[in-house]
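User: Chorion peroxidase. Structure?
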Amino acid sequence: HTRVERRHVTRGQEHLHKQEPPCASCPRNGRCVPKVQCPAHLRPGSNNPSCHMDNFVGVCCLTGRQHAGEHERKSRTSSISVEDIKLSHDHSRRKLAQWMSNAEKLADKPVHTIVNTTTPSFGHHLSVVTYDPRANKLGRGGLMNLFAAQDLKARDAVTDDDLLLGLTGETDGPFCFPQPVCQPNSRYRSISGECNSLNFPTWGAVHTGFERLLPPDYNDGTWAIRKAKSGLPLPSARLVSSTLLLDGSHPSPTHNLMFMQFGQFIAHDTSAGVVFNTGNGSAISCCTESGSLLPPELQHFACAPIVAATDDPFYSDFGQTCLNFVRVQIAPASDCSIGYGKQMNGVTHFADLSHIYGSSREKLSSLRAAEGLLNTFNDYGRELPPLTERKECMSVAEGAACFESGDNHGNQIISLTVLHTIFTREHNRIAKALAVLNPGWDEDTVFFEARRILQAEFQHIIYNEWLPLLLGPQLMNIFNLSPAPEYASGYDPGLNPSLTSEFSTAAMRFGHSVIDGKLIIPSPARGGIYETISIPEVMFQPTRMRLKHFLDRLLIGLASQPMQTVDPFVTEGLTRYMFHGGNPYGIDLASINIQRGRDHGVRSYNDYRRLIGLQPYLEFQEFSLSAAQRLSTVYERPEDIDLWIGGLLEEPVEGGIVGPVFANIIADQFAKLKRGDRYFYEYGPDINPGAFTPSQLAEIKKVTISRLICDNSDGIELFSQPPAGFLRADLLGNEQVPCSSARIPSMDLNRFKEM
Ligand code: HEM
Ligand SMILES: [Ca+2]
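Assistant: Predicted structure:
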C-alpha cells in the first residue's frame, strides 16, 4: 500500500498563537479563554479582542462555555404567543403517538426490521445497547420537544437563531428532564452523575444530551442529516471510508498498545450514545436480510442506513449494498427548553468509572457484593468480573464466557475486558485494606471509600500519564490539565462538563486509527510468541480470559506491542471484519464513525479549523498530493469534508500524536471534565465535599498505570512492567523493571486510616 505523503508544513499552525497585542482585560464581562472554547458568535463585539491568559494569548469570550451560553439565550429575538406554544405542544404529542404506532407496526414484521443475532450488525447493537428503560422514556420526551421545535419552525413562529439557542422560560417544551433532589454536601459523587453541579444538578448526568462546540449543521436546522454545501446529499459514508482509509501497518515509535486500550476505557466511561431500539430493546434493522435497503415504508424513523456501492471494493463480493445504521436518541434538555436535537448519553459524562460501577443505583446494586466489594467470578482462584446472564456476547461455543460490567459492553474487545478486570480487582484490593484499617466502618462506607479512591487513581492516570502523551506539553499547559503540586484550583460552577458531540463522534475516535489488527500474545517463559490473535476473533468473545496465563500474557503484550500512529490507515479488522462472528464479512467502523458525526449534526472539518484560528482548506490541493486526489474523488468541495476524516489527515501537534483540531477538541473536553467536576480528585475541601487530605492526595499521585497492573495481574507470568506504562517497553530508559522497583511507586493506604 502506498502511504499518503505527509504534508510538510501544516498551513495555518503559525496562526494558532499569533502575538497580537492583547487587551489587559475583556470588555462587557467577557472571559479570556482558548479559541476552541469561544465560537465567533460568543465573542464580544465584532473585533474579537485577544487577551492574555497565564501562559498564552486567548480570546475574549462572553461565556467561555459552549455556543448556547446563558447570556445568548436571553437575547432571543422573536416573541412567541402562548397560543403558538400550545399548538406546538399538541402537534408534538400527536406526532409522537403517530411515530410510535408506526414503529410498533414495524415490529410486527420482525424478519425485516429486527437485527438477526447471528449477523455482524448484532455486534454493533451490543456495542451501543442500553438496558435501562429510563433511557427510552426520556428519549420519547426528547422527541416531543424536538417535534414542538420543528412545528414552531414550520409555522415561522421562531427564527433559526432562536432554535440554535434553545427556547426556554414561557416557551418550555412539553417534556422536562426530571430534576433531582440534592444533598449538597454529600461526600460521594452520585451514581447517576446528578447533583455534581449545585446550580444545574443534571449537568453531566446519565441520559442528558451531548453539548457542542459549534451549532449543529442539520439540514432542516433541527435533526435532518447534513447535506453537501451544493444542496446534494453528501457522499456515502462507506464510499468515504473505502476511498480515504487504507489498511496498513504504521507502528508508533513511542506509544504501546496499552495507550490505545486505556483510551477506549476512558471513552466508555464518558461516552455512550443511546441508539434507538424497537421499544422493547431489540435492535432495529434498516436493511433486508440479504443486505439491501429496506423500502422506506419499512424503515424505522431512526434509520439512516449507509449505502455500499454495487462496485464496493469489499461488500460487493457479498452482495451487500446496505450497511445498517440507527440514529441516537434525543435527550430532553435539563432546563425544559426546546430546540435542535441533542443526542443522549447513556453513561455519566464525568470520568468517574461509570463503566465499572454503573450509572444507576439499580445497576450498582447488581454489581455489589458484601463487605464493600464488587462482585467477581472466582475462576479457580483467579478473580474475574462476574459472568453475565444476558446475551452480551457473540460467542456461542459451549463453555463460552461473557462478563458483566457497569456499561454492558466490557466484552467488546478482550483487551478491554482485561482493563475491567484490573479495575474491579483494584476496587476489591482497596476495600479489603480499608476494612482492616478501619474495623468500625460498615460495608457501605468501605464500598464508597474504595470507589472514591479508585476514581481518584483513574483520574490521576488520565491527567498525569495519558493526556500528556496525546496532547503534548503546550496544550496541557494552555488548558491547565497537568496535576498541581497540591490542591488544584479552577473549579467553575458555571461550566457545563458534558461531552461535546465533536469529541465523541470525531476527536476521541482518533483511537480507531491506532488499533492494531492483531494482538500479539507473548510466551514469556520461552521468550517467543504464544499466539497472534486477529482482533475480530476476540470482539464480544472473551472466553480466553478463563485461560490461566492469558491475562498476564496479554498485559505483557500490550506493554511491548507498539500502537499504530494516528493517520488515515485503519485496520481491516475494523473496516471489513468487525463483529463478523461466523460470517465472511463484518461491519465497517469507519463508515459508522462518519455517519455518526452526521447523525449528531457535527459540522464539516473546515469549520473547526476556523474555530481554533487556523485557515480553512479552500482547495483540495492544499492537502497532501494523494489525500487531495482521494478527497476530490468523493467530496464535491473541501467545505464538505467530515470532521473525523479531516482530523485523521492532520500532522500531529508538537510532542503529541493528534493534529491541532483533534487536540484542541480533546483538550477542551478534558478541561471541562476537570473544571466542571466538583468531585475532581485534586480539589480541596473548599470545593469538593469528598476532598482528600493533602497527605492522602500525595499518595494517590504516586499511582501509575504500571502500579495498577503490577498489583492486580495474576502474578503467574507478569512480574515486571515498564515504568512509563503507556510507552513501549523497548524504549531506551523504559525497560521493564520488577514490580517491587521504586520506579513503580505505590500508594500507602495507611493514610486512609480514619483518625
Ligand atoms: C479496541 C477496539 C475498538 C472497537 C472494536 C471499537 C468499536 C466501537 C464501536 C462499535 C463504537 C460504536 C460506534 C457508533 O455506533 O457510533 C465505538 C464508539 C466509540 N469509540 Fe471505539 N472501538 C475500539 C477502540 C476505541 C479506542 C481505542 C478509542 C479511543 C481512544 C475509542 C473511542 C470511541 C468513542 C469515543 C466512541 C463513541 C462512543 C459513543 O458515544 O457512543 N474506541 N467504538
Ligand atoms: Ca462516566
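The radius of gyration is 25 Å. The chain is about 35% helix and 5% strand.
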